[in-house]
Amino acid sequence: MKPVFELDARKVELLIRGALLDDAVNAGERLGALLADVNLDDDGDVSVCLDAELWPEDKTASQAVAVAELLSIDLEQTVTDMTAPFHWPALASETTSMVEYVSVLLDAYAGRTVDLRRQ
Fold first, then answer.
1. Cβ contact 53:27 at 8 Å
2. Where exactly are the structural domains of the chain?
3. How far is C-alpha 83 from the chain's CA centre?
């Protein structure tokens, strides 16, 4: 018996988000991919909404589009003003690794109170 490739909204979101991570070229875009709002609608199409502070407005998520095409679904990409998780979101676009980004972020926050909240 052949295995059946079953897709639901959660699995589509996972595949599209993984492709967004492939599209990301810096720490900011990776954060944008992780925070993106990815939704599968009733027609089986997917919408991806990215934060303009973390993902360039004119950048097409080509890997995400390619994955959607492989799955025979349409992908609509939008960019909006969400709330970046930290002040100075532009710092993330200047760094290539998360270690570098966190280091630069901590330097930017130097002398300020750091509030580590556990939720």
1. no
2. 9-108
3. 13
